[in-house]
Every structure is written in structure tokens, then in C-alpha cells.
Amino acid sequence: MSFLVKIKNADVYVGGNKILKSLNWSMSEKENWVVIGNNGTGKTTFMKLIFGELIPVYGGEVRWFGNKGRTPLSEVRKKIGYVSAEYQSNYDRPALGWEVVASGHFSSIGLHEDVTQKQKGVAFDSMSYLGIEYLSYTPYRQMSYGEARRILLARAMVHRASLMILDEPCTGLDIPTRETFLETMEKMSRKGTRMIYVTHRIEEIMPCFTHVLYLKNGKVFKQGRKEAMMNSKILSSALGCSITVEKNFNRYYAAIGHKK
């Protein structure tokens, strides 16, 4: 397999508005990417394009998992997990923790099919891997915000996803819960799960991430290896304000000055 995702000349419209413009990008099987941009730059649209929820127009292409031809979206989604704050707010069915996780087998909100013992076992294994098996019989609506987010991460893992899309997953989390979540990213990467992580907060970029893509006004502004991309000049230009980037203990931090 030469690539996990390859996008070529992608124009994407949402509600009649052109959100992504002539986008070209690819990800290899040994990379983890961070996507950075201000609100409204097209980050979520980009993730939905990768997930196959949106499609490019005018001859644009998306290819997955080394396939040069078209791949059925049902097959693509079996290999991709998706976690976002938006999805968490949309999961509105009453369910226990393990039931939410098991619903990932069917890509459904709530359980509408019988769960086999094997599928239930995989759900419990995913929760155990993340250290949240204590939530198995807790009603989803009674969980804290951070607990619910980790349950949805376990849900995304039940297919043994080759690629995990994390669209601003730490939005709304307090600092201790955020750090627990980020450490989980490191653990998943060591086990071989590849990730695309969307954020506008550089302190969330963990050591496991290898590359950075900046989006600005629906276009690729800059992309490349993390070490080259994480500098004050590029970040300031991408986000439109004066930022000094500092690195400490393999994490990056931003000191923000006046707006340009």
C-alpha cells in the first residue's frame, strides 16, 4: 500500500457554497497528520471528504488505502473511525456505554440490530483498551462530557480502524481530561493506528504526529513535516495573528501577540 488517502484537484461545495478549492493532498501509511486552521477554513469539510460523506465535483478525486480505482464507501468506512464534538451532540438515543460502543459495528446511532457475542466482546475490548470499562453499564446521557467523548472513541475503534479521523476531539474538555485523551492518541499510534487530527490549538499536537497541513480560506496554505511547519512565521501567516512558537518536552506552545 503506497497511500492511505490521496486527494486530487478537489472542489467541494456545501449548501451551494464552495468550501474547498483545488485541494491536493496525500497521506502515506506511516504518517500521522495534524490539520490546523481557524474556524471557517474548511477543516470539518475536509474531514468529511476523507470519510466519504462529501464528494468533490468537476473531476476531483479521492482514493483510499492504495486503491487506484473507485472503492465502495461501505468498504472505506469499515477502515475509518470518526470522532468529533459535533457527532457527540448528535448521539441522542438512550443507551448504555457498551451499547453506544457496539453501535459502531453498524455505523448507527443506537442499536437497531441484534449484537452477537463476538461483537459485544469487541466492544468491551475497545473500552478496556481505553481504560473505560467502568462505563459499560452507565447510561450515555449520565456520563460527563469527557467520558462520553472517550466512549465515542471506543465506538470508532470497534472495526479495528486503520485510520482514525479526530475532528477537534478536545473541544469542551477540561485540561486533565484533555491530557488523558491526548495520551490515548499516543497509545493508539504505538499500536499502529494512523490518525488525522484537526485542531486550532498547537498544544494538542502530540509527539506521534509527523506532518502538518495548514488550511486557509478553503485552500492548502502549507504542508509538510511537523518540524518544518511548526515555526512562528508559518503559523502566524496561517492563523492571521502574531504568534511565537515554543517547543518544550516534545510539545509545542503558542505565545500570541497583537492581531495583524
Word description of this protein:
By secondary structure, the protein is of the alpha/beta class. It has a domain at 91-161. The protein contains nine helices and eleven strands. α5 crosses α6. The N and C termini lie far apart (43 Å).
Any idea what the shape is?
A: globular
Q: What is the gyration radius calculated from CA atoms?
A: 18 Å
Structural category is alpha/beta
Number of H/I helices: 9
User: What is the total tally of β strands?
Assistant: 11
**Biggest pleated sheet:** 6 strands, mixed
Order of helices and strands: EEEHEHEHHHHEHEEEHHEE
Q: Specify the helix fraction band.
A: 25-40%
Termini Cα gap: 43 Å
Beta-strand fraction estimate: 25-35%
Strand order of the largest sheet: 5-6-7-3-8-9
Overall pLDDT? 91
Taking pLDDT < 50 over at least 5 consecutive residues as the criterion, the unreliable ranges are none
What are the main properties of this structure?
single chain, 260 residues, alpha/beta, six-stranded mixed sheet, 9 helices, 31% helix, 29% strand
Give the helices and strands, then pairings.
Elements: E1 5-14, E2 17-27, E3 33-36, H1 43-51, E4 61-64, H2 73-77, E5 80-84, H3 85-90, H4 97-102, H5 117-129, H6 145-157, E6 163-167, H7 175-190, E7 194-199, E8 211-216, E9 219-225, H8 226-229, H9 232-239, E10 241-248, E11 251-259
Parallel strand pairs: 3-7, 3-8, 5-6, 6-7
Antiparallel strand pairs: 1-2, 1-4, 8-9, 10-11
Helix pairs in contact: 5-6
